[in-house]
Amino acid sequence: MIRSFTLRCGLLGLTFAVANGCDGGGADGRHRVYGKVTLDGVPLAKGVIAFDPAPGGGATVTTGGVVVDGAYLIAGEDGPTAGKYRVSIRSGGGETADAKSAPGMPPSLKAAKGDPIPKKYNAESILTADVGASGSTEANYELTSQ
Question: Residue 18 has what pLDDT?
Fold first, then answer.
């Protein structure tokens, strides 16, 4: 009888762990975010995407990821918390501005030299994302160079 109870408790715990692990969530209420980025209908070869909390949107962390061949994925443990975000996307063919232009910022997030992406998608971004309270969020961005 005790063995049966222990087995049931173990199975219940395993079920709970699997169910929580499969929703794309990470530590501290963070969530998996993924999607596609195109520029003039063509997948963006490489770049970076950043999610910054929008004022009054309930989001609490800034995060980002790398865009490769038009796709990005920010895993749950590194992802944003639920809420509204201002999204910025940059691509500079791997060339970033010098250290004086953005002191203390990681090289991958510095303003890119000769960025083909207009400011309306990065420095003055009009892009947004609404990250749900559970599971994964898909956020795709179709950018135009004009």
Answer: 37
For residue 4, tell me if it sits in a domain.
no
* CA-closest candidate to residue 65, choices 46, 43, 82, 92: 46
Would residue 51 count as lying in a domain?
yes
Encoded amino acid at 72, one letter: Y
Q: What is the pTM of this model?
A: 0.70
CA 112, CA 116: separation in Å to the nearest integer?
9
- Whichever domain contains 90, its CATH number is 2.60.40
Residue ranges making up the domain that contains 46: 33-94+113-143
Overall domain count for the chain: 1
Q: How far apart are CA 71 and CA 102, in angstroms?
A: 26
Report if residue 121 sits inside a domain: yes
- Could you say which DSSP state residue 114 is in? T
76 is a domain residue: yes
Q: Render pLDDT for 24-69 as a digit per residue (tens, 0 to 9).
A: 556 689 999 999 999 999 999 999 999 999 999 999 999 999 999 9
Q: Which residues contact residue 113 at a Cβ distance below 8 angstroms, ignoring those fewer than 6 apart?
A: 92, 95, 96, 97
